[in-house]
Amino acid sequence: TLDKYNSASQIQEYLEQLVKKFPHLATLETIGYSVEGRPILAVKISNYTVPDKPVILIDAGIHAREWIAPAVALYFLHEMVENYEKNKNLTDAIEWHIIPLLNPDGYEFSRKEDRMWRKNRANTSDPLCPGVDLNRNFDLHFGGSGTSLDPCDETFIGSGPFSEPETRALRDYALKLRNVKLYLTFHSYGQYFLYPWGFGEVLPGDWKDLDRLARYAEKAISSVYGTHYQVGSSTQLLGAAAGGSDDWMKARAGVKYAYTVELPGGGSKGFDLPPHQIPYVTRETFEAIKLLGYFIANQRHR
């Protein structure tokens, strides 16, 4: 199942099998429900031997059409749990929380109806234009640059901050976790490793730390197949877009290292990376996540 694009229910099935097979390593939690009532699932990976481990939180699939993102999250889970012996140090040192598919409704709609769908499937004030851009719905500079008040736009912000059950699920889950040291949100496409701020030109006070670590991660990726990423703040590289999850995690949830990773593109539209390329992207990205894990694990001993 890992070298193809799975449906929301296949993803759920895989997660359920995983925790059943490896209950000592993985637990599954429903952290909320989508607009259409699909469960939003989070997997916690930990071997419970060490108390108060640093936490790394990862989500994928906030944008419906970015199919490679959930595939990367699933491969990561597979490697960490099914190949535990190989990656044991990381599971022992870090408590991982993975939300492989944050926007299941939009994802299914992009599978069945409109391959280029980005938003969720909420009703809006315009009956012809459903959907909110979940990555504009977080409560930091809500409605700022790079956002739209028009429900027919791709970047429609919604009726208010956290108006959507999907963003509320992530918010509540993140605030409940203690000790989150690093946050990764997977998107596509473009090969960018981005740090805050996304709301405007200004940089966080500790941007050099974020930049340095991102460049190490970039090297880990390029060491596998030679794929290169650009590193910088979201605004510097892609222009301002306020209300994103990474800005919110850093400013409101207090996560020092918060990154948006724009995975490689392919196909005719960039978002439709051919399935035969999935293994390349998932493998090289895994190396970066591992490096980030080791970095956070080593920090606690300083």
UniProtKB/TrEMBL annotation:
<dbReference type="GO" id="GO:0004181">
    <property type="term" value="F:metallocarboxypeptidase activity"/>
</dbReference>
<keyword id="KW-1015">Disulfide bond</keyword>
<keyword id="KW-0862">Zinc</keyword>
<feature type="domain" description="Peptidase M14">
    <location>
        <begin position="4"/>
        <end position="296"/>
    </location>
</feature>
<keyword id="KW-0378">Hydrolase</keyword>
<dbReference type="InterPro" id="IPR057246">
    <property type="entry name" value="CARBOXYPEPT_ZN_1"/>
</dbReference>
<dbReference type="Pfam" id="PF00246">
    <property type="entry name" value="Peptidase_M14"/>
</dbReference>
<dbReference type="InterPro" id="IPR000834">
    <property type="entry name" value="Peptidase_M14"/>
</dbReference>
<keyword id="KW-0479">Metal-binding</keyword>
<keyword id="KW-0121">Carboxypeptidase</keyword>
<keyword id="KW-0645">Protease</keyword>
<feature type="active site" description="Proton donor/acceptor">
    <location>
        <position position="262"/>
    </location>
</feature>
<comment type="function">
    <text>Involved in the digestion of the blood meal.</text>
</comment>
<comment type="similarity">
    <text>Belongs to the peptidase M14 family.</text>
</comment>
<protein>
    <submittedName>
        <fullName>Putative carboxypeptidase b</fullName>
    </submittedName>
</protein>
<dbReference type="GO" id="GO:0005615">
    <property type="term" value="C:extracellular space"/>
</dbReference>
<keyword id="KW-0964">Secreted</keyword>
<dbReference type="GO" id="GO:0006508">
    <property type="term" value="P:proteolysis"/>
</dbReference>
<keyword id="KW-0482">Metalloprotease</keyword>
<dbReference type="GO" id="GO:0008270">
    <property type="term" value="F:zinc ion binding"/>
</dbReference>
